[in-house]
Design goal:
Layout: E1 4-13, E2 18-28, E3 34-45, H1 47-64, E4 69-74, H2 77-83, H3 92-105, E5 110-115, H4 122-135
Parallel strand pairs: 1-4, 4-5
Antiparallel strand pairs: 1-2, 2-3
Helix pairs in contact: 1-3
Length: 136
């Protein structure tokens, strides 16, 4: 059981839309020890779709690990600002993903979403590229 987790997420598409994947790196919140890292191929999707799916995947995994507090670091300002309810979600596909992520967030005591620059998110980005390279 992990009461607190740190999760780095990334999503990417080669072409927009194009072959897309997620990357998720989970660390134990107190010790910062690695818990797991993984990615998922999404088929042909947009970059923003992939970014949302990475957060949704991280939320589902955090729930399965029984986390109470989850801190996300994402390099998608759009996803972070929308999920923090600072920006409106206008695109219909993203509206559905927003609702799924928002509903999953309600299962935790606290979820913090922080935007980081791409260079601070290299491990999650590497997971995305590993998945995409395997599909090409």
């Amino acid at each position: 059981m992990q009461s607190s987790l740190i999760i780095y997420t990334d999503g990417g598409a080669r072409g927009n839309p194009g072959p897309a994947a997620t990357g998720v790196v989970i660390l134990e919140g107190e010790t910062k020890e690695p818990v797991e890292r993984y990615g998922e191929f999404l088929g042909k999707q947009t970059n923003n779709y992939a970014e949302y799916m990475a957060v949704i995947s991280g939320l589902k995994r955090a729930s399965a690990l029984h986390a109470k507090v989850v801190t996300f670091y994402c390099d998608s300002k759009l996803v972070v600002e929308q999920l923090n309810r600072n920006w409106k979600v206008k695109e219909p596909t993203l509206q559905k993903l927003f609702m799924e992520a928002y509903n999953l967030m309600q299962g935790f005591d606290r979820v913090v979403l922080t935007h980081v620059r791409r260079e601070k998110n290299k491990e999650a980005d590497a997971e995305v590229n590993k998945i995409l390279d395997a599909q090409m």
